[in-house]
């Protein structure tokens, strides 16, 4: 599968697989000129798996802040050759044939570079990568990667260096470099932005289709970036979890009538907004039934063990009856987002956070976050942006105005880059400005949830000054102005651990039946409230010692998935039409003689 599903060319070269590898604990590699690529590094590693993981073949979880990679390749034919990295944690420098071609800061955002000038005419090419990933820098965005020697509580093993695909792409001298799709379901249109390199005087052709039906076929003169709005014909092309229709796009650069470059893409026609205290998709209220996914695998850590594993993750979430996923403290592989687009699963786009505040950290975080937003902005599945979780990286929000300004700036900058989705400044508590007001509530009882969110007065107190926890949900004296209220972490149910077992959870139960009973009571309390517009259950899978998943860490069901699906289908009081729709569907199934 192409590592960049929304801008593909048929010819590309996968550089994943065996590379040479070395730890550089003395930080001597630069001075020793390892970057020249004329010496073996001694070990081998399987890319893109991090060296801490078993899948890499290195399997050394000890802290090694500097690592090096080396491999050779044959350059494919083409006017230019681009080298792509899906993600390298955290600071990367790249050399080709001894020439430094680029550097990048940020462990979750992609980068690429034109390496044509560094290629040699005869013989194989050599690429060398140096990655630096500090264990001690608490201002570095790291998400759930733990800084101590052994994982504990809600933190896991580290992921150092390359952890998403590396690949080559041969392109012509004039080529399509980027695409952004901004759909409008209300207007039945899509705005396309085409970025091209050395394309002045050429034209760009945009062809949209759904199966065999051509929806649009337009041509524009290239004068800088091309940005046009394309009207769509009549027909139900909407994208939603229930109907994930994707519209295919072919974008070509032409010199007169000669095709210079062609790429394939897609988008989904949908609107995501908040209105009158509800989340609204395509003009209709949608109660969000989400699950929190850590995106860790036992043998490969942040890197997915295979392409199939990414698809299976989405399928498992849908089998459990969730319509959305909150990928937690991780920027997930674009191929995962592709399957969410294709199969119909909404996603909250989240960023890995730091743990301490600094001015330099603000600059680094902001730059990386904006790269992430630009990467994912065209995916229809992504319906909300969440730059910060639980004040991570901004621990003194109530007392430090700089930290509050930082969150405010992230909110407004995100809207400046993408004005089509809700933005949550700080999921869980201590919100500054947010389009959705969210809370993390691990109340062990359904009565506790009902007492806080069961009535408008109770919810007003919880989101006001009467929250029982140490941190207020909303900072300042904010007045609610149509923002939905959602409980975006709850549950955390796990089986009672064995004696001496390494364990973390929020509440223990004895067996599968007890887990189902507790889950149903908690969900019933939330969907029974007219104040609550959505929930996110913690969590999808067991992850290392945090064993509160609905699935094991190897993605096996702990409980009957049909039972979880039935509970997740309980109609929400805040969306009265859900019950009516369920009655209509049940009557339709009965008329066909289908089981309920």
Q: What is the CA-based Rg, rounded?
A: 25 Å
Q: What is the CATH domain class of the largest domain?
A: Alpha Beta
Total discrete domains: 3
- The secondary-structure class comes to alpha+beta
Unreliably modeled segments: none
Helix content estimate: 10-25%
> At the third CATH level, what is the topology name of the largest domain?
TIM Barrel
Distance between the termini: 37 Å
In short:
The chain is of the alpha+beta class and 596 residues long.
Tell me what you see in this structure.
- The chain is α+β, with helices and mostly antiparallel strands and 596 residues long.
- The chain has 3 domains: 17-164, Jelly Rolls; 175-184 and 186-237 and 242-267, Immunoglobulin-like (Sandwich); 286-590, TIM Barrel (Alpha-Beta Barrel).
- 19% of the residues lie in helices and 30% in strands.
- The chain is built from 9 helices and 31 strands.
- The chain has helices at residues 307-319, 334-343, 359-376, 401-417, 446-453, 456-462, 512-527, 561-568, 577-591; strands at 13-14, 17-23, 43-47, 66-73, 80-85, 88-89, 91-96, 99-105, 111-114, 125-132, 161-162, 166-171, 175-184, 189-197, 203-210, 213-221, 226-231, 247-255, 258-267, 272-275, 278-281, 284-285, 288-293, 324-327, 346-350, 382-386, 437-440, 485-491, 493-495, 507-509, 532-538.
- Helix 5 (446-453) packs parallel to helix 7 (512-527).
- It is globular.
- The protein starts with 12 loop residues before the first strand and ends in a 5-residue tail after the last helix.
- The model has no long low-confidence stretch (mean pLDDT 95).
- InterPro entries: Beta-gal/glucu_dom_sf, Galactose-bd-like_sf, GH, GH2_Domain-Containing, Glyco_hydro_2_cat, Glyco_hydro_2_N, Ig-like_fold, Ig-like_GH2.
- Keywords: Glycosidase, Hydrolase.
- Residues 175-270 form the Glycoside hydrolase family 2 immunoglobulin-like beta-sandwich domain.
- It comes from Actinophytocola algeriensis.
- Residues 14-130 form the Glycosyl hydrolases family 2 sugar binding domain.
